[in-house]
Structure formats: C-alpha cells, structure tokens
Amino acid sequence: MSARKSDRGPKRDDGSWQLTEPHAGMAQGMVVSGYDHLPTGEALFLEFAWDRHQRGGAWLAALNAIAPVTPADGKVPRSVSLSLSWTGLARMGLDQRALASFPQAFREGMYQRDRMRRLGDTCDGQWSDCVIPTGPRWSGNTPQLPPEDPASVPPGQVDGTTPITVHAMLLLFTATDAEVAAWSAEVEQALVPQGVHVVHRRPIALHKGDDGIVREHFGFADGMSQPVPFDPDATVPAAAVPNGWNAVALGDVLLGHINGHHDIAAGPVVPIEPDGRTAAAGLPRHPRAGDAADFGLNGTFLAVRELLQDVPGFWTALTREAARLRTEDPHGGDVIDATWLGERVIGRCMAGDALRANGPLPRNDPATPDNEFGFYDDDQLGYGCPIGAHMRRGNPRDGLAQRPDQVRTLREAANRHRILRRGRKFGPPIADRMVDDGVERGLLFLAINTDIERQFEFIMQTWMMNPNFATLFDEADPLVGTATPMSLQAKPLRRKAHLENFVKLAGGDYFFLPSLPALKYLELL
Amino acid sequence: MRQTTSSIALEVKPDSEALLLSLIARLDRPDAATQPAMTKTDLLARMPSLHFFSLTVFPRGVFDPLFVIEANFDGPAGPFWPQLEAALGPQLRPMIACCKRPADGCGPLYDAVTAPGSRRDLAPYLQTRAGKPSVYHHGNRGMSRQRVVNEAALFSAVEAELDAAGQVAQTWRILPPADIHARLREKLLPQFAWLAQPAPARKTLGEKLGDWVRLAVLVLAVLVVLTLPGQIAAGLVETDRLVIAFVLLTAIVWGSLLRIAGPLEGTATHGRTNLLNFAWRQIFKILIALAVFFAVAMLVVTPTTVAISHLSWREAVIPSARALGWGIAAMVVIVLPALVLWLRWLERRDSTQDAPTIDEAVMRLMREREDHTPINHMAAMIPLKPGILRTVLVHVGHRGLHLALRVFIKDGYLASMRTIHFAHWAFVNNGARMMFLSNYDLSWETYFDDFIEKAHEGLTLAFGSGEGFPPTRLLIQDGASHGTLFKAWARHSMTVSRYWLAAYTDITSDQIERNFRIAAGLRQPTLTPESAAQWIVDL
C-alpha cells in the first residue's frame, strides 16, 4: 500500500449531520438518514385511479392512519417516505398556479425529449443502450408539449410515454422482511378503497455483508461518499468543516435554504385562500410572494431511476475483456483479471477503497474506506483511479484542476453539483456472479437534490455521459454509460478497454419529496 | 495564423421580421422547388477559412429586431466576405432586404444590393457593415481550421495504430515512450507528410508585440487621465494647502467609502477576492507600472513645464516630478477610491431583477437546439446601465479585458476553464446594448456553472454593467456568485441561435490542444526520454 501523506487531506469530518428544529420536524426523515438500522423495505409505486369526484387528499388521510410519513427528528423503529410526481400532484387537484411554480425540470419530467437526450437515455431519437430495449416501464407520464421546431426532432423519436403511470412513490423501511410484507399488504389494502393502486413494487434492501459493508449487486461496496449539508440556522454542525471534501450548502438538499450558488433554493408556492388550509397545514408565508404560502420549504426533489443490473453479463464481459488486455500485454498484464478491470471501472477496490497507483488508498479508520481524498495531489494522471472511472466521473473532487492554485476552487466547484444518494438494491444477491439465474435485480437509484438541472442532470450530462470529460475523447461512464472504450492510464502507455453497458434504466422520473406541512396541505385538498 | 471575429448587426424592418425568420429557417430546410439543396458540407467547402458562423435575430423589445451575422474565420476579413457571398449570397440577399436601409452613407449601397433582381456584389456591403468586437477571445488562438481538422485526423490515426488488435498491440507496451514515439512517427509519416515540416507559429512575434504595445498604450492613457487631477492641483496650489486638501479629501472619500462599501442586506456571498486584495496580490506589478509611468511621463511633463513656465530644463525637473508625484499619489489615494465610491453609490441604487422573465417557448426552442454535439452556440443581448461612469467603465473595461486576454491568456485557459472556441462582445444600438456570442464546449449549464463557480469575479466584471444583473459590490464581488439568479438573468438575455454552421462540432477546445500537443511531438524526429514520457500522457 502507498504511504499515506499526513498532509494530504484537510481536517477530517465523520460525515454525520442533523437538522435543527423546526426543520427536523418538517423535513422527511429520508433526507437525513439512509436508515442503516432498517435494512429491509419496499418501494410501492402508486397510481391515483380515483374518479374525479373524490377529494384529492383523502387517500393521504387513510395512509396517515397506518403509515404516517416519518419526520427527520429522531431514530424510528420503522419509517415511511412519500414523494409525488408532477402528474400525481395534478391528479390530487393542486392549484394550477402551484403546479406552474415548480421548476421546469420537474414539470417536464425525466422523459421530456431534450432531457432524455441530455441524460443519455436516447441517442438520435431512439432509446440508447443505457435503457432496457422496450423503453422504460414506468414514469409519471407527464404530458409533453409538441416541439417548438418539429425539424429538431429526429425521425422516429421515441415519445417517452411508459406503460405504467406512477403518481406517487411510497417507501417503507423496516427492520425485518416479515414486518415489511405484513405492513405493505396492510397499506395496499387501505389504499385500494381510496382509488390508489399499487402498479409496481420493488423490495428495497441493504443486504449488508458479514463484514458490515453494503455492496451493490456487482459486488462493489456502495454509497461510499455522501455530501454533508451545513447551514448556520438549520443544521448541526452549523458550518462546513473548513476545506471539507463533502461540504454542501443545505439549500442543495432542502428547498427554502441558501444553496451552493448563494441563493435561496426556490420551491413551489400555493395560494393563501380564505379557507385557511395553508394555516391549518402549518405552511409559512412565502418570503417573496405576498399572497402565497411556501409549499417547498424543507421539501426537496428526488431523481428516481430503477436500474436493472445484469450481473453475469457484466462479469462475463469483463472476464473476456481482461483476457484480451492480458494478451496485449504479455510482459505486464499478469495482474489483469475481471476483478482488476471491474475495480478500474468503478475506481475503487471491491471493499470500497479508492485506487492509487501503488494499491488501495490506506485507511485512517480500519473499519471504513477513507472518503477524504482528492485526485490532484497523488493521482492527477489516473495511474491509480482511471480518469474516466465511475467514481471519478460521479464526483471529480479536485481532479479537474490543472495547477495547485486551482485545487480549492475546483473542489468547491465540484461540490456545487453533489446529490444525496438514498438508493437501495432490489432483487436477491446473486449466488455466482458468472451464472445467470434469471432473476431481475438492480438498484433503485434515489438522488436528493433541490436543483435538478444543476445537480442530477449536470452530473449525468457533464460528468457521466460527457464524451470529452477531463480531456478524454469519445468515452462515457464505464458503468452506466453507453458502450464505449475506456482509457486506463498506465506506463508506458495507456490501455484501452472496450466495455458494454450492463446497467439499464427500467423506469424512473422526478419526484417531489414534500415537507410534512406540505403533505398535510395535500391531505386537506 | 491570425483569426478574425466579426459580426454584422442590422436593424430589421419590424414588418419583415417573420419573413426574415422564415428565410433563415429555410437555410436548414431548403425548398427543393425554389432553391438548390446546399448541405453544410458544401457550404464549408466554399468557405475554407470558416470556423463558426451564425445567424441570430434578437426579438423586438425596446428596440426593433436586430439581425446579427457572426463569423469567425482564419485570416483577415477582406477575402472572407466574397467567400461568404459565394457560398450564401443568394440566401443572404433577401435577408438583408428585410433589414432597414442604413441612415448613413451606406444607403445607396444598400439600395443597390437589395434592389429586386440585383446582381451587385454583396461582399462590399457586408464588409462596410461589419462591426469590430469590443472584446473577443479565441480559445485555440492561432489554430487554423485546416490545422484543427488535420491534427484531429492525426489523433484518430494514432488511436487506430495503438488500438490495432492482436500481435501489433503486444509490441507497443514493451517499448519505452521515446521508441513508441519514433515508431508511431515512422508509421504515420507517409499518411501525414506535414509531420516532416516545421509547425507554423500560432502567434507571430509581431502579433505578440502588437498586443503588448496596445495594452501598454491603454494603461498609460488611463494613468494619464487618472493622474491629471493631482497634477493640475499641484500646478495650481502651494504645497501646504495641497497637503491640507489631500488629507481632507482622503478622509472624506475613504470615510464615505468605508461607510457604504459593505453589502446590502441579503446580497453578500463571501467570496475570496475583492478589489483591495486583488490589488495587493499584484502590488509588485503595480509598483513597477507606476515607476515606468513616472519615468515615461517625466519625458512628457518636463518639456511641457519648460514650454509653459520659461524655466530651464534643469529647473523644470523638480516641479515636474512634484506634479507627477502628486498626480500619482492623488490617483492612488483619492481619485481611484473616489471613482470606486461613485460606483458603489450607483451599485447600491441599481435595480436588479429577481425574477427575469423567460419565455418558455423560446427556452424550449433554445434547448431543442442545444447539446446535439459537444460544441454549442449561444447569443445574448444585454441592455447597459446608464450614466457616464458606467459607460466609461464598460468601454475602457472592455478594451482592457480584450487586450489582457490577448496578452495574458497563453494556453486558452480562462481561470481553470478551456471551453471557449470563439466568443465576442460587441456594442450595438449606438452603444445602448452589448451583444455576446459564444461558440463553447459542453452544455450551457456546464459553461455557465463553470464560470460562476470558478471565475465569478471575471464574470461580474464582464457582465455587471448589464441592466438587471444580480447585485454587484465594488465591481467584482457578489454579482455572478448569485448563480441561480445569474443563470436566470443570462437565459433571459438570450435568444435562439437560428442558424449555426460549424466546421467541426465534436473537437472540443481542450481536445484541439491535446491534438496539438500530440502533433507537435510527432513533428519532432526524436524525443528525449523525459519529453517522450511527458508527451505520451496525451495518447
């Protein structure tokens, strides 16, 4: 292992943070916790199939009786999180002005033609190889406007409509499988009379290994790096660790607070009506709109992507490609096998430690991989963690700096695009990574962010799918991107691996994760 | 190879705006019945020096619509306009007829080229109407289009050689970098004969000297103006009174400045750079510039003193030095701070736009056209803040920015970013508005977020004179740091790039420099082990 430079990283932080009151009581618990102590659960995707005479919020009252949404103010024995798509909010009868006050990305949805293109989900108007061949199965099915310039649309452009319409996503987190089975049946039973149907479901689990590490289905330690929000008025700790690698403004995680661009993360508004609904729900007056209440405060947005992982396909392809690389490198290729190549695809070793030229990055705490590192000081050229590795594209840290005096600025700039990841696996762990057992498995990717364009979409477009990321040429993310070559920096000469995509989008959309007062307001609709 | 950036801004007859838009749209979708199909490849072949070309119509508002023809090409402007006419003349002529007849001496020329059935050359009219940008930036300065394309082809060939499967591949990895270089050169030389020739200089010595001289003249001119108040006062007032006035004015200016220098409530962004610490970081350069100025100015002031005072040359030296000394002292301690005070006073009263209107249909149209290739185009129009100080600042500032970019940007990097191919600002509508056109890499979000996060001071300096800009403080603080607000303002300033022609759409500015480095290495018959080890990193 390489010797650890004592001055390499700035002051350490352990990544823990909390919201202070009143915000902790208003925000949903999922914002502050990945529910490590609740390893099982289920995601229920709901469609509102009620007739138009029904009150929009009645189902929330029914849900509240058996599965009340959990606030962010303490540890709970089981937890509920609820988010809504734009069509879900519209179906509940939210005021038109309120609907129009959501940001454009949320109003248009993930399958708006130009967004699909920018996210890499379509290429020349057709589904790319990052999507299952039939196209995604579910979404909010947000109505799409016709193109302003029809000539800009390629012939045969897919329209992004999915067979299943999802109006809301309910996440149940529990301690045991038995508990979640009983609870979700109970919830489903309670919702059916309200005209709310479960149209899609996925078990969501951590499946911690015996070593306490959560691994995604390919076998790599997952969820290694999370941003740590700070706000002088709403978090503990109140200020960022000086020069911290993961500090982000709370407004990048929760609406209504100062964001990374020094502005209040603007959320939706609802009109203040004489019926006193906003007051009853506890929605504060909006700071800018005199006649409206702040519907967004302490809410946020979720980018949701159900990603199917073809585990045997991934490892079989890596085995084949590793063999080819070995053949091309008779004098130095002995180390190359599927695991070696897979680790370079990710940028970390299987246990989660970042790669360096001389081996994994040494740990400060023997129990967990180190997360306080940059790339500029000891891996600028990518001899350890390749420049196009999934981890490096997902968060380049200071790796895009050209000179030492740019390191701080570049690290801070990268942190303006962070997302809080709350994804969980679905499907059972595979018994043998080389043998197809015919079972669907993957990741329900859940990214919390307040500015979908600056955070989730930026990461996808500018880092993950960018063919020119960090002066690479015609490459994409080796894990979730389209099939492209991947440069593996080495001496004397880089290797080039040819990789395919084995992580495919099967459904997803943008969801609004309301605060508890906002949910109360919806219940009163 | 020198490049030229030019734009022609023509006011549109309001009733002809729709026709103009449809004529532009037809360029991409020619009507086969009335117009021979001309592909972009055909057009680019007819304009071999062209890098990027765009047609934009800024919609009516306070002004009538404005039609803008933007061209970025190799070499001087003279030969380009006939090339443009040869390629697009029949299409451009009716577009120009949609524009107003110029009120200046160009009227008859306009009549001649727009008369029904006119066959009069268009190029002279285009040349006459072409404006000079106030600032332009060429990210890959000196790289001709042919060279960009040639070196990109070389890059592809290098990749193909290195990635050839089987036995060939095995041999590369056992060679040291210098031998890899030699073998690649040997293999590629037959296909790329130009590798045997020395590389043309990207910037000539004359260009570099010219840039330096222009910058020096500007700095000297500004110093002359700013030191004049002190010099005049020194000539008119005795030293003891001068000292009293100096102290009093200093106290007034600095007292007032300190009182209002702070941010208005809710607008502070806690950036790391302000005018004072920026100046402090440049203190040695500033002192040297002042010393040089003093020496040069003495050569002018002393004879002037002799001429107006009948003193001998020897006697004139001390009063001249005294006047200059007071001029410099007053500039540093009073005049500049007083200008900053004046600016801050204005800044505190600026109207900033909290919710710039963005027409969603226009926004969709822009987005429909963005991100089909790694290179994109944008066009923005910004009304300027009124008042003499703002007007002088923006004009002198643009001149300074332009020359500073020419002199100090050597590798295409603006701060830590190299995402611009060709960008320029130009004043239009008699200086009431400034236009910004850019051919940039990656998405619009990336382009703007990059500048907001990595060079917001420069962005505030460059755009802060625009109406509605987020609240600025002391010229470079806050402003664009309000990223969300700034991006909304920037989108609001933009309009659809109606037509865009690019000679290359997937070779980013960064990649051009990478290809350049690879080509520069391969032009060398041999490399030392050290330089080969450095060179091979780009492969």
Helix content of chain A: 10-25%
Report strand % of chain A.
15-25%
Mean pLDDT of chain A: 92
Query: How much helix is in the residues of chain B?
Result: 40-55%
* Rg of chain A, alpha carbons: 23 Å
Gap between N and C termini of chain B, in Å? 26 Å
DSSP E strands of chain B, number: 11
Residue ranges of chain A: pLDDT <50 for 5 or more in a row?
Answer: 1-12
Continuous helix count of chain B: 20
Overall description:
The complex is a heterodimer of chains A (525) and B (539). Chain A is of the alpha+beta class and 525 residues long. Chain A has one domain. Helices cover 24% and strands 19% of the residues of chain A. In chain A, strands 15, 18, 19, 20 and 23 form a 5-stranded antiparallel beta sheet that branches. Chain A has a 4-stranded antiparallel beta sheet with strand order 3-8-2-9. In chain A, β4 and β5 form a beta hairpin. The longest helix of chain A has 17 residues. The termini of chain A are far apart. In chain A, 56% of the residues are buried. Chain B is of the alpha+beta class and 539 residues long. Among the domains of chain B are: 131 residues, 2-Layer Sandwich (Alpha-Beta Plaits), CATH 3.30.70.100; 86 residues, no CATH class; 143 residues, no CATH class. Chain B is 55% helix and 13% strand. Chain B has 20 helices and 11 strands. In chain B, β8 and β9 form a beta hairpin. The longest helix of chain B has 35 residues. Chain B starts with a strand and ends with a helix. Classes of the chains: A alpha+beta (525), B alpha+beta (539).
Brief descriptors of the model:
A: 525 residues; alpha+beta; five-stranded antiparallel beta sheet; four-stranded antiparallel beta sheet; 24% helix; globular; disordered N terminus; B: 539 residues; 20 helices
